[in-house]
Input
Amino acid sequence: MLDKKLDYEQGPIRPPSEANSLLLRLTRNCPWNRCLFCPVYKKEKFSRRSLEEIKGDIAVIEKAADKIKKISLSSGFGGDVNRQVAVQVQSQHPDLFQVAFWLYHGGENVFLQDGDSLLLPVDQLVEILELLVGKFSSIKRITTYARSRTLLRRSVDDFSRLKKAGLNRIHVGMESGNDEVLDYMQKGVNFAQQVDAAKRVKAAGLSLSEYIILGLGGERLWREHALDSAKALSEINPDFIRVRTLAVPASSPLNEKVQNDEFKLMSDDDIVREEKLFIENLQGIESFFYSDHILNLLEDVNGRLPEDKQKMLAVIDRYLCLPAEERERFCLGRRTGYYRTMDDMQNESLNSSVERSYKQLQSKGLTVDQYVKKLMLKFI
Ligand code: SF4
Output
């Protein structure tokens, strides 16, 4: 029987790198909510959760963790939350599963939701962080999303206080460094503000993860998008650069502009060329670069900059040097889930599956590009 008291509130999204993290919701939705490309919170209003509500959730999580440990003890696992315990909890106590899943992964990482947690007063954030760290000695990393605009309302001293209290990393959706792209997409910040905000975070010694959306400049501004995004990141020197590829669901305001041809989406090939220009122009930084999003065509463009730059560009060149027909087959195979990387094109059985998909498309009169754009929406 589900114990209602052990329910706690969770928001809809988290970065891919926080898949195993405990999700603690500090605010609901996004206070800005205007970015044209963003479908996430469009129907939901922003609100701050009260300190009492958040503390209540931490108490529920603590209670759930105690209960899970008792289940482990009574099953002879000495209090460890191993796979058997997690499976048992999932089938017998589904309300405890999120916490069991977190503990199974070590109980180390926490992600503060939703889109702009640092909007809460610093004193409140410090209290929440200290409470979390005090309750769960296993915690090693606490991270959150934040908008650059909100970061600009905080001083380096504020960030230092948050770091001391337990915050380790801030994820920022920069999306682009180009002012025209940022303005068109109604991001609400410009190049200079993004750089200023990021530098404050870095000055306090917090880890910083910046996100860029490949394809966000569209056919018209792709070059400016690549060059200015690289310029901004080269000034910031973030700890992590993460890319994801633009996909436009019907629920995002950008869709109307795509439908009336005002914004022209780029093909996969052109986005790969844009990514090449972007990486080539990342200069003088020491950052991890990750393509850790299912929407990206080339998920193996990863590495540590500067030393892996040539290796990353070689992956891109390998793709661009494929004959056009093989590039098309790879795009189809990647988006249909048969291929992960270009090495999978050596696998005859996978190639046969991709070939079957290709023939089906031809019989329906669809191009690979049209089909791939539809498939990508499934991954948002
Ligand atoms: S700031 Fe982030 S969450 Fe808010 S609308 Fe823009 S992209 Fe979406």
Q: What stands out?
A: The CA atoms of residues 338 and 353 lie 7 Å apart. Residues 30, 32-35, 38, 40, 115, 147, 173 surround iron/sulfur cluster (CB under 6 Å).
